[in-house]
Amino acid sequence: MQTGMISSTPTAATPTSSSAKTTPSNTLDANSFLQLLVTQLQNQDPTSASAMDPNTMVQQLTSFSSLQQAQDTNTLLTGLQGQMGGLFQAQSAGMIGATAQVSGSQFNLSSGTASMNVNLNAAANVTLKVSNASGQVVATLPEGNLKAGANTLTWNGKDANGNQLPDGTYNVSVTATGANGAAIANTTSMGVTVTGVGFQNGAVSIFSGSNSYNLSNVLEIDA
Questions:
Q1: How far is residue 117's CA from residue 137's CA, in Å, rounded to a whole number?
Q2: Could you tell me the residue ranges of all domains in the chain?
């Protein structure tokens, strides 16, 4: 993250204006509130029946105090948020080298082997269709009857003709049906090795090779 820039090239001095320009603002801060209160006191007639009574004065001073305390609290919370963000980033770096279970339906083929997890709500007959990056179905894998719960499925990276496919990421669609032919609900995930951690716009992502996954999709971290 670039936080500043230092240039070795000298720059001409910027001329200053003799008159300061005031930019209108719609935000009422503590200083503006106090100025309004002082102006009100300066322009009221103390002999008038409509002049501010002591109770009103106390109420406005109390409002000013509450406003100042709220702004101080916001400043403190902003500082704490920055510190917590830095601490979280430092802790996230400890995930590098670990294995993460990430929600998604993919085979990450490496050296002719890949695996993914299918969690079934009930026992089902499962078939996987594997597609390449172009959306072309390259392999159909009849996994047969699988038990309810977690099942780890593997793929040797070969297409329908027995040819070895190159390493990379392949999308997987899961068809799971019960004994009566009805669809069985399922969720899928895959294990990836964390090779890096990234931070952008307050969000954290993990990297596994050239693939990135949002931290909200990480289901489990294994040492």
A1: 20
A2: 99-222
C-alpha closest to that of 102 among 201, 205, 186, 203? 205
Pick the CATH number of 99-222 from 2.70.40.10, 2.60.40.4070, 3.40.50.150, 3.40.190.10: 2.60.40.4070
**Cα 99–104–105 angle (5° rounding)?**
115
The pLDDT > 90 percentage for the chain reads 35
Tell me the per-residue pLDDT of 8-34, one tens digit each, with 9 for 90 and over.
344 444 444 445 555 655 555 566 666
